[in-house]
Amino acid sequence: MKNLNYFIALTLSTLLLSSCGSDKDSPIPDNNPVIFQASIGNITRASGTSWDSGDAIGIYALNAGETFPSGVYNSKNNIKYTTTGDGTFTAQSNAISFPDEGQLSFVAYYPYTDPINNYSYSINVSNQSDPTAIDLLYSNNATSLGKTTSAVSLQFKHMLSMMSLNISIGNGISSLDGMTASIKDLKTSGTLNLADGTISAGTTTESITPVLSGTTNAKTLTAIVLPKQDFKNATVSITLNGKTYEWKPESQELDPSKKYTYSLQLNSSGLTAIQPSATIVDWEAGNTGSGTTVLTPIEQPKFTTDKTTVALPASGSLTDNIALTTQTDQAWTTSSDQSWLSVTANGTGSGNITLTAEENTATTSRTATVTITPTGSTTLSPITITVTQEAASSTPPATPGLLFPGSDFENWTTFTGALNSYGLKDAEQSTDGGRNSSSALHINVTPSSNDYVFTALVPSNFSAAGKTKIIFYIKGTADGKSLSMNVYQNDNNSSGYVMFNLSDCSGDATIQSSGTNSYTGSINTNGNWVKITLNIADIASNISTTAGNNLFALKVGKTAAYDLYVDDLTIE
Asked: 336, 354, 389 — which closes off a domain?
């Protein structure tokens, strides 16, 4: 059954026959068979609004007020009922009948499987190719019913969680065609206790491939996932044009019957979480069969931006873009409270808002506030963007030959001030661990995931023209993983950045560019400083020169023990 949001009403019709009373626990001949009529309301389904031929449910009959296993009535365990697609469900054998005396309760589930051991339904969502095959439904609402009951409604609900990731294009990306994706490090197995409807997560952790749909400019990734786990443990990996983007969600406990929606944007420089916190709605809708329609709550209108702060240099590249996400018919206006900063005047629907500053010739920095106001809305609030522009002398000049200010790690404040907003991770300054007893960067950690140690920004008046190599020095060990580096390219180059992988290293090494980040290999310099050279001769003309954009990133691999010193990053 290829639907993801529905309630199912099952109508039980009985033929009333005159007979003598009988003991409820003694075998009952099938002379009063139950006919199940299954109808589907006016709902959204992946394959329409009717059952598919061959759809099957499993039904248990219990003596009213009793539980598994002793309460099972007349061996009516996991009775299979199927349909030809017309809504009529029939049992091929061992059909359920009401007793002449006493009452029954019913437990049902979809999709049917056999055998079921100890009333525990095994769950496995690792294969997402057919969502209906793993969309587990459960019903235990029909209780204490007897042969005078003309209709029995079994109301099903989703027992798993739905994950939906809306992907849009950003700067430097012209198309999402050819995109692939995976969600890694989620638990994919578990069990449903048919006695009480509780879910228990297993221990198996696998990578799943979500279902991909959409257009050239916008894609949606959907996956049915196991509840009772924290989504922050997962990693969303997206590959486009040979480049891989990764995103780790914020902490979010997954509940049964809930749908979690996130919005992400791919840019040439990376992946941006436009909506980092989930929108959560009930993953249930449809007709219960009794005329009552259950509607999914309407999602609140969106009016969000990808950032609320902007930092601009004193001179050079004096523009930046703000990505606004809202409804297609929502109009908005913008304003700046400072004359030195201009901003896109107005617009309708989602789009980029361009900020343009004048050169700052003063020796002090300055700040402006940009306000984005929704027009005619009583539920949406204006958004304010704080824009800071550096003073004319606030950026320390780079030492000749250094890749960026502070890349010899002697002035720690200068180094950390040259990094992007994510700052420094998994490393610290060593004041005497560098070459010739100078300062160095010390990586002394076992990362739980593939991490950026730092990403340095393009300094003012930077140019790689005529350069052929980036050089740095390392000393120490990395057990089971190596280093990976990104060199970022100009904004008009859709490839975003070029990757370099060190692999195994025990001495001086010259590295060529690679198509992906890889951390394979180990490092052991045997206590010596070794020289690492990145060959940039073929890409130097495309290396980013826009001050404030990403320039160079150093990355480490997960679950490896690093005790590594890095010193003197230069460009020659």
From this structure: 389
CB 449, CB 235: distance < 8 Å: yes
Closest CA to 255 of 177, 162, 182: 162
Neighbouring residues of 253: CB distance < 8 A, sequence distance ≥ 6 = 229, 230, 231
Q: pLDDT-derived band of residue 1, with 50, 70 and 90 as boundaries? A: low
Q: Are 279 and 325 members of one domain?
A: no
Q: CA torsion 431→433→437→439, rounded to 10°?
A: -40
| Residues 295-311: tens digit of each pLDDT | 233 345 688 888 888 98
Q: How many CA atoms lie within 13 A of 455 on its CB side?
A: 15
CATH of the domain at 181: 2.60.40.2630
Closest residue by Cα to residue 226 from 249, 203, 250:
203
Tally of domains in the chain: 3
Confidence (pTM): 0.47
CB 542 within 8 A of CB 438: no
Q: Which pair of tokens denotes residue 549?
A: 């954009």
Count the Cβ atoms, other than its own, within 10 Å of residue 477: 16
Strand partners, 445: 562
DSSP 8-state code for residue 298: P
Neighbours of 448 (CB within 10 A): 9
Q: Rounded to an integer, what distance in angstroms lies between the CA atom of residue 134 and that of residue 501? A: 39
Mean pLDDT of the chain: 83
Give the DSSP letter of residue 232: G
Domain of residue 506 covers 412-571
List the structure tokens of 108: 């049902």
